[in-house]
Structures are given as C-alpha cells and as structure tokens.
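Hello K.,

You asked for the raw outputs rather than the summary table, so here they are, unedited. I folded two proteins back to back in the same session to keep the settings identical. This is the first:
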Amino acid sequence: MAGYDRVSEIKAFDDARSGVKGLVDAGITAIPRFFHHPPDAAVTNETTLAGQPKIPVIDLGITSGDFSDREAVVELVRQASETFGFFQVLNHGIPQSVLDDMLEGVRRFNEQDLAVKMRHYTRDPSRKVLFNTNFDLFESPAANWRDTLICFMAPEPAAKPEDLPDAAREIILEYTREVQKLGGILFELFSEALGLKTEYLNEIECSKGLHLVSHYYPPCPQPELTLGTTKHSDPDFLTVLLQDHIGGLQVLHQNQWIDVTPVPGALVINIGDLLQLLSNDKLKSVEHRVRANKIGPRVSVACFLTNSRQRRYGPIKELLGQKNPPKYKEITVTEYTIYYKSKGLDGTSALDHFRV
C-alpha cells in the first residue's frame, strides 16, 4: 500500500465520467484497488446450495383476475415479510412487454455513445436525474462494481419528462406509472397483514414517492475481489425490483447468504427500513447484496417507494401496547435519508441510529 494515493485514483476515475463500463471498454484485466473489498468475516461468504431456504414466490392473481383468495395472499405476504423480508410476485399486473422494455431501456442508456451518456453524469444532489458510479464513492470503504441512473419520479417536484435520458424516457414514464399502481396494491396487503384497515399505509402516503434506480453491472475480470453492491438495507418503505436473468442478488437470512434466483416474469419485493420502523420491527428490512460476476452485463431496476415530504413517521400507534412499546423515535423521511447517505453503504443498519 506504500505510495498508493486512493483519493487521487478515485478522483481521476470520477472525473473521467465513463463509469465502470468505461474501465471494461478500455480492456482492463485487473480492477482498480479502490474496488477491492475486504472479506466479510461476519458471515459465510459462499452460499450452501444443499438445503438452502428459498425466497417465497407469491401469485398475486392480478393479471388473471383471480384475486379472490385475498386472505391467503395476505397471509403469505405476512409470513414472507416477517421471516425473509423478501419475496417475489407473479401475476402482478405489469405486462411482460413493459418489463422487457424497461430492462432494454437501461441497457440502451448505458451502451449508447459515451459523449451522450456523460451529459447526465453528476453528483449534484439537487438534480432529479443523476448518472454516476456509487452515490457514496468518496465515503465508502470500497467501491461497488456498477454504474447507476437515478430518476426522482415522485412526489413533486420530480423529474420532468424532458430531463429523462432519450434512450429510456418513454419506458421510464410507463414503467413507473405501473409500479406506482402496484405499490398501492402491495401497501393494502401490508396494511391487512398488520391487522390495520386496508387503506392505512396508503392514507399515510407511504406510496406517494417513487425513485427509480437502475443498475448496470458490467462483467468483472476479478469478481472475487469486489461486489456489485455492498451489504445494505433499503432506506424506504418498500422496494419493487426488476432483475434480468443473470442473478447475483442475495439476502442475508440466519447468517447465510440466500440467492434470490430470477423467476421469469416476477418482480422482487422487499421491506424497507421505514416500513420496519412503522411496524415496530414486526416486518423485517433485511440486508442484501449483489455479487460481481464475470458474466454480464447484469441489469436491474429498483423502484423505491417513499415520501420525500416533511411528514413525521414513527411506530404505528395501533400496533403498540404495554408489551410492545415503541422501539423508534418519530422522524421524517428526509432525516432518515440524510443520515443514510452520510453513512454510506458500510454494512451497518441506519435504523439503529433512530432506536429509542
């Protein structure tokens, strides 16, 4: 490490504005040192395939019109949310053609002429559309092997259609409209799973905001040295994730990394930190990561359902009692987000900072 100027190397990389894909296009065979991750001593790094638990796959029945057995669906959602914090959904109501077009839009954006793509490269937090490599590039202990396009789609003030990149504008608008509808349905199910009235979580505006975060993971020449995304939980109420066929997403369950195997046509749903806070730890926001891979590019699109207004959120009073006192302070989404970003993806939960 003698003579290694990490800060200068990161700055030179960021100033180039060509991202991880730029490194791959340049033909590198060894990844820069600031992408190197130390071994994770807290958990087994390799998954054990024999007897590995499976992330639940739930048929919502929306596409087929068979949403009659609602109580059974609510119970499956409750069980998955209390144990894994993750599940996949089929028959969710979003056409396959829209899913395919969204993934293709992300590929098209990242694989277009560099000069066009670079116009969106920024770290200006006031922008509603940002393209860069790692939001916490200068703060995190090690960088992740991915490039990211972030679009703040709701609530107002949000990205205007003309702000969105030409390569994916129409599909981003269509896909996020579909996800926001699905989000409303999912929050109904979560409300019922918590024993609340159906509209409870929608009425307190958990589905008001939507941030689209698309990741492009180029093939990595040394995947054993880095990660696509560090261990983390999500700073929202709920995440709806579209992933392609390559895989690499893993959930930490009982101190073991469990693969979230891609299921054709499915969307991955996971509880965010703020929904765990609202439920007073009944629903679990679980740490997850993405492994780097020699195969690629891998593409995923995460929609974070949140609310960027100054409304205060705390454990839901209807869920509290003498045997279940509040475990968290009341906070705003803004307060949580500021702390989460300042901490970066360092492998620790930001929720702990707000415990009573």
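The second followed immediately with the same parameters:
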Amino acid sequence: MGALGAGIAALGAGLGIGLIGSKSTESIARQPEAAADIRSAMILTAAFVEGAALFAIIVGLLDKLL
C-alpha cells in the first residue's frame, strides 16, 4: 500500500503543478503588466506542492519499509 500511496502523491503533484502552470499562463495573458507578481506566486505555490508531495512519497515509502 505504501508504493500505491507514493504513486498517487506523485500523480497528484504532477496534476497540481500542471494546473498551476496553466492558470498562471492564462492570468499572464489576461494581465501582462502583472506577470512578475503572478510568476513569483506560481513558483512559490509550485514549491509548496512539491514539498507536500515529497513528504507524502517519503511517508508512503516508509510505510512500505516498516
């Protein structure tokens, strides 16, 4: 079950980062003057998603080992 949980966490992170990228690109297209603010918020949010996914993957793999 640990490997399944790790895979689901990786899949969720990939989908989340894809949505972040698509919505930020759409936002920049609508308001090009706010591109710097949108880009910095996008990078920060993607880093949070990656951190949460890494934590979930580690927990899932630890469940497999222990």
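The radius of gyration is 15 Å.

Happy to rerun anything if the numbers look odd on your end.

Regards,
P.
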